[in-house]
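During data preparation, we tokenized the protein backbone, and the record follows.
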Amino acid sequence: MYKTISILFITCSVVLFSCKHKPPPPPALVPVNLVTAVPQSVFYYDKYPSTTEALSEVSLRPEVPGYITGIFFTEGTHVKKGQKLYDIDKRLYQASYDAAIANVKVAVGNQVQAKQDADRYTYLNNHNAIAKQVLDHAVIALENAENQVKAAQEAEKTAKTNLTYATVYAPFDGTIGFSLVKLGDMASVGTTVLNTISTIDPMAVDFLINEKQLTHFEGLQNHRKRQPDSLFTILMPDNMLYPFTGKISVIDRAIDPQTGAIRIRLVFPNPKYGLKAGMSCIVRVHNQDTAPQLVIPGKAVVEQMGEYFVFVVKDTLISHNSDSAKKQETDTAAQKGPKFYAFQKKVQLGQTIGANVIIKGGIDEGDRIVVDGVQSLHDGSQVDVGRKQPPGGNGSDSTQNHTPGSAGKRDSSENN
């Protein structure tokens, strides 16, 4: 019986022992590649979307109504100030001008007659040969004749102005566009637009900046003598570099309260007419900050809800266990070597330079940044820095992993 009990006890013990849950295996270490954040001098441009604008632009409108009887230019060409562009039917205006000249002559004749009468009656009045009333009437008639001459002369000026307005001239040197009227069309004052003419050399380039950058651009405007020749350049719509450099012309008077932006106007020479009004281009502002800056590969940056983070690796231990557990884990780590953990840090991004990006804040010089394997990490993940992650693994960029120094130099040559 005792033997049977012993067998049952041993059997139960074996069953109970086999029913115990095995401890879960430790989490697999995430292999990562690292890069050390080292400050370096960088060469880059701040880029702003921009639009070309004519410094002067005017819509040509008729000052007098009439039918278009002449067009004297080639559309889309350069015209000179005072060049004849359009003729409006001037027959009525010529007739009015001729009549006005005739009226002036009649008025002048009446004035001469009234002057003679007034002189004659003045002489007779001095010798008491006529009534005083006759002399007064003669003097008034002379004054009326003189006023009629002035009125006729003003009417002549008006008729001459209308006749002049029947011919439309270029108000300044510029490029003229497509004619909006054809021969025989009726031109009405205030409603008809004949054409548009705009200056083309030099050409303005407008772009917007944030109000926080206003002080910097005001400094650039006020210290032009110390600016490099290549401070302001533009990229054409085909991404080609425009061969001429520009300068700040105007900073707008006010900041838009809705967007916090303010408009800056640059002026570029345009001797070959390569810039056209309304063209979209990119303004490049040469970076003048010569202090070394931290540059890391752009694929190391993770965006979350509009904020940017990187993973910084440190050989430290994280645990919320008791002091004895910490001591035991530390002793184990001392035997097996240091453990590496990835900590998430929020950063402020600067200019993007090719595959790299400038970090304005959030990390320090010498920090080791994860560049491959970031998609598999969370704050506090234990990582394996010995077994390298293939570049571009875990959904990251497939571009080759470069150090900040080499990538920064590569982008500098491209910008040049």
